[in-house]
Design goal:
By secondary structure, the chain is of the alpha/beta class. The protein has nine helices and 19 strands. Strand 12 and strand 13 form a beta hairpin. The longest helix has 19 residues.
Length: 398
């Protein structure tokens, strides 16, 4: 990722800005009960029955499940405050369920372990009662024998089939080369492979509203919408057999409150709109155009609209959380004003954050939510069904 977001002096941030933001706000966890917010943690009790079973080079932990928990954070301490274990899984330090094997402790060194239940990717309830354990040392004489059988036990689940991700799909129109290959042609080939060989049905991509497609301008103080660039992109995507998840992003320069706030080498604008009514009009007219061009049944049954991308990260949204919730409400209502059967969802967050907060907000705003979305990298996803159940939204797709 190349980050071109600028600071207040107009100087480009280092490319590590996105990683630094992750470290500060996603990859860091404190001790539950000290920095958590009780609302988002859902008042979850501490896990009971925690056991620590020493093994060769590892300690296996297990506990009783907590009703309503989306997952669990493992904490460890030895002569210092408890810290959550970073098991190298990526952006979410929580795990969906036990048991859990800590392979990162020094053999023979006793540590205290405790577990906390989480309701989403950012909040945690109180710690369990601690237990002490240390991995056993191998004495240099460890041996492992593995036997592999060939009995089939069922069909492989294919969780990748509903959707894959891509960078901005306007790359389909590019005729320049990278690595000796024409960019647009290579992207089309990759998308066809995903469809034909992996069974993927849809693709989610950034920047369909970016200025390289000329979607939004203003003339004589009035907004001008031109969807011909989007048509060229989506026609090529449809030719691959895939359907789009329309990520409503990023902000057109003429509509941005602060067009200097950008990300990526192509300077995608991450600002809230300067005019909320004009943003609503753009989203509404886009949805109406897509229904008219591709057909109501097609768009309603095989497409979806997702509001923005990872607004809980500063590198993707320069507004506040409340401004994102306003963006969600305005966008979702604009889509539904075209046809109530069109599907729209969010919060499109990184690391399962803002899930509880968005659902709580929608309790008051009444804006529609047809699916819940968040992005997790390099880790098993948390089970967000309990938080949906707590808001009476059982069965909402995730």
């Amino acid at each position: 990722m190349t980050v071109s977001r600028r600071d207040h002096q107009g100087v480009p941030d280092r490319p590590a800005a996105a990683r630094a933001d992750w470290e500060q706000r996603i990859g860091r966890r404190g001790v539950p009960g000290r920095n958590g917010h009780a609302g988002a943690s859902g008042g979850l009790p501490p896990p009971s029955g925690l056991q620590a079973m020493p093994g060769l080079g590892q300690v296996t932990l297990d506990w009783e499940p907590v009703p309503g928990a989306a997952g669990y954070l493992i904490y460890r301490a030895v002569g210092e405050p408890y810290q959550p274990l970073d098991h190298g899984g990526g952006d979410v330090l929580a795990i969906p369920a036990g048991p859990y094997a800590d392979t990162s402790s020094e053999p023979g060194r006793v540590r205290l372990y405790a577990v906390a239940a989480v309701a989403d990717g950012a909040s945690a309830g109180p710690l369990s009662e601690p237990v002490a354990a240390a991995p056993a040392a191998d004495g240099g004489r460890a041996a492992v024998t593995i036997e592999v059988g060939g009995q089939a036990i069922g069909e492989l689940e294919r969780p990748w089939e509903p959707m894959i991700g891509s960078e901005h799909l306007s790359c389909l129109l590019r005729r320049d080369r990278t690595g000796g290959r024409v960019i647009g042609r290579e992207l089309r080939q990759a998308l066809r492979i995903a469809r034909d060989e992996l069974g993927v049905r849809a693709v989610r991509a950034h920047g369909i509203l970016d200025d390289d497609l000329g979607v939004y301008t203003e003339a004589g103080g009035r907004p001008v919408h031109d969807f011909s660039g989007i048509d060229r992109v989506y026609d090529q995507l449809m030719d691959t057999g895939l359907r789009p998840v329309v990520e409503l992003s990023f902000m057109p320069a003429a509509l941005a409150r602060d067009p200097g706030q950008t990300i990526f080498s192509y300077r995608a604008i991450i600002s809230p709109p300067k005019d909320w009514d004009r943003w609503a009009g753009l989203v509404r007219d886009l949805a109406a155009h897509l229904v008219q061009r591709y057909g109501r049944d097609e768009v309603m049954s095989r497409w979806a609209f997702e509001v923005w991308n990872e607004p809980n990260l500063d590198v993707f949204w320069s507004g506040t959380r409340e401004e994102y919730f306003r963006l969600y409400d305005v966008s979702a209502r604009a889509v539904k004003s075209v046809d109530p059967g069109l599907r729209v969802g969010g919060p499109s967050s990184a690391a399962a954050s803002w899930v509880w907060e968005l659902l709580a907000h929608l309790e008051n705003s009444g804006a529609p939510l047809d699916f819940l979305s968040s992005h997790v990298y390099g880790n098993v996803p948390l089970d967000l069904r309990p938080v949906l159940d707590s808001f009476g939204r059982e069965g909402t797709p995730i």
